[in-house]
Amino acid sequence: MDKIKILIADDVKETRDIVKKIIELEDDFEIVGEAVDGQEAVDKIKKLKPDVVLMDINMPVLNGLEATEKITALNPEVIVIIMSVQGESEYLKKAMFYGAKEYIIKPFNYDTLVNTIKLTYERYKQINKSQEHYKDGKIITFFSSKGGVGKTTLAVNVGVELSKTKKVLLLDMDLMFGDISIFVDAVDSKTIIDAIDDENTDSYNSLKTYLFSYNKNLDILFAPKKPEASEYIGKEIVEKIINILKRHYDVVIVDTGINFSEVTLHILDISDYILFISNIDIASLKNTKLGLQVMRSLGYDKNKVKVVINRFNTDYGIGKKEAEEVFKEEIFLTIPDDEKIVLNSINSGKPFVEGNKLIKSKIEKAIETLCKTLEI
Ligand SMILES: Nc1ncnc2c1ncn2[C@@H]1O[C@H](COP(=O)(O)OP(=O)(O)OP(=O)(O)O)[C@@H](O)[C@H]1O
Ligand SMILES: [Mg+2]
């Protein structure tokens, strides 16, 4: 049998030593690490991958309650057992609310500690196994090296189309000029900056209130309404938010701005697919060629970066073959130019793939093909 891996988080060395002594006497247990405050415990989870965290409540830097919430939000399979002294029952209730599975009252004896760990581990191992696994949403990012080529139009319509069969999150990460809220007629909704300002970014439950529910399968996190707000949104917070959210969706669609900011680079890194959007005019081709060179220098492989030509029309003088020669890259797909449908859809705040006409337009069919061709 694999040993139960335990991390001890307590700022008092004496307590850690006692717990260590007891645990070392048990063959089924193994101590994988110690932490002297809540933050250290949070930081060590990824590397040490403990099955169980023994967590003190009162600790400096980050207390045991907040540490428990952070750990269980990102690692729901980790079992947190709270160690507390008598008379902290209010805290205990809170701890359970924040995701702790069990508690023991200090001072405890040998048998209490060993049995609590064993029983809690066995109980939750079974539940973890039988429970539906958390999702690990595939991340599909819409990017371009020239503005106005149709990233947002395509991201929104692909999001709505995929939500017909999958659970989808649409993230507006064009943090300065994001306009997805206009495309879905929801300009008064909350945005990512509200979640950050309210410090409600530690769990799915907290973040949920800032998502716009477009339909039962599609949630949207909007970009701030003012460009200057983007200054307060760094890579760390974006990474945290995406890590928490993606566990609840099959697919995460990300719309981006035209920049290589820290946030954008992070998103490009964690994407399963980057749909590199271009138009077919000379200026677009030039910028896309340069942008694709950046993709290569970032080390992304060909399967990850897919070139999509939007507003394609064979009458425009440049064909698919010629574009491929310029890019030295295959074109994954083309989306037809259809100003009437697209403009109407944006102006009415209703994505065009919602059209319930019996006969589908070419552009709707192209979005369907795009969704089917992506391996998700
Ligand atoms: N397939 C299409 N056919 C016709 N017009 C289109 C098509 N796709 C996008 N457009 C038009 O192009 C304009 C820009 O689209 P969109 O806002 O989606 O681009 P973007 O790349 O997100 O721009 P930005 O760089 O500002 O974020 C819109 O006015 C839209 O109507
Ligand atoms: Mg846009």
UniProtKB/TrEMBL annotation:
Assigned GO CC terms: cytoplasmic side of plasma membrane; cytosol
Modified residues (4-aspartylphosphate): D56
Domain Response regulatory: 5-121
GO BP annotation list: negative regulation of cell division; phosphorelay signal transduction system
Entries under InterPro entries matching the protein: AAA_dom, CheY-like_superfamily, P-loop_NTPase, ParA/MinD_ATPase, Sig_transdc_resp-reg_receiver
Signal peptide positions (record): none
Keywords: Phosphoprotein
Gene Ontology MF: a single term: ATP hydrolysis activity
Gene3D superfamilies: 3.40.50.2300, P-loop containing nucleotide triphosphate hydrolases
Top-level taxon of origin: Bacteria
Function: May play the central regulatory role in sporulation. It may be an element of the effector pathway responsible for the activation of sporulation genes in response to nutritional stress. Spo0A may act in concert with spo0H (a sigma factor) to control the expression of some genes that are critical to the sporulation process.
Protein name: Stage 0 sporulation protein A homolog
Species in which this protein is naturally found: Thermobrachium celere DSM 8682
